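Bug #77: duplicate submission created two jobs. Keeping one. Sequence:
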Amino acid sequence: MDDMRTDTHRVDNAARSRHRLAAALWVLGSGLLAFLFGWSAISLTRDQLHIRCSMGPPGSEGADSWHCSDGIGYVGVAVVLGVMWFLVVLAGSLVALLVERNRTARVLLVLLAAISTAWILGWTWYGSSELVQDEYAPMTGTEYWAHAVGPAAAVSTLSVAAGLVTLVLTRRLSWIIGIGAALGLAVATILQPGLSLNTLPAVGLLASAAVRGVHDGRPHRPAASPRP
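Kept job's structure:
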């Protein structure tokens, strides 16, 4: 009987280890993909939101066209968004792999996804409202944001909210809604690829939380001590 319990414990622990590894790979894979598409954030910032750009008054040489800072002027954008990308991917990978309690890991992973998504949505809104010289433009900076980012922002917000809902659920239902939340955030990224540097890691984080939720609610049984 003791040998059977020990074998069951080993099988259970092996399954938990595989799930932790799979969860970490979701975060790392999405982080790498986000890095590869990270350049699109500069395109969004400059060409669609016109952050650090200005338009000349009517009748002037610069009328009806945007004049933006050179590449150096957007280094700050890369740093602001890139630092968050690095921190979220690093922290998410460590949480997914090393935190043993599934409930704790799920909470941390979903919160990291929410922070990453809110970071780029918040920063682009700030840049559009404060860093666009739109005095002579046909629309205000925030109107450009609503046009370029608004639909993706709505979908990503709903997706993150769904991810938060999974924290009060367990096992199968949590997994289904968690995967749905990750897919929703992927759709938001397709709607606006310029958000991918921070939303793609959030996709991986939500998927990772769903993977960790598979074992959530199952008691962790200690190894049986052999009888003398």
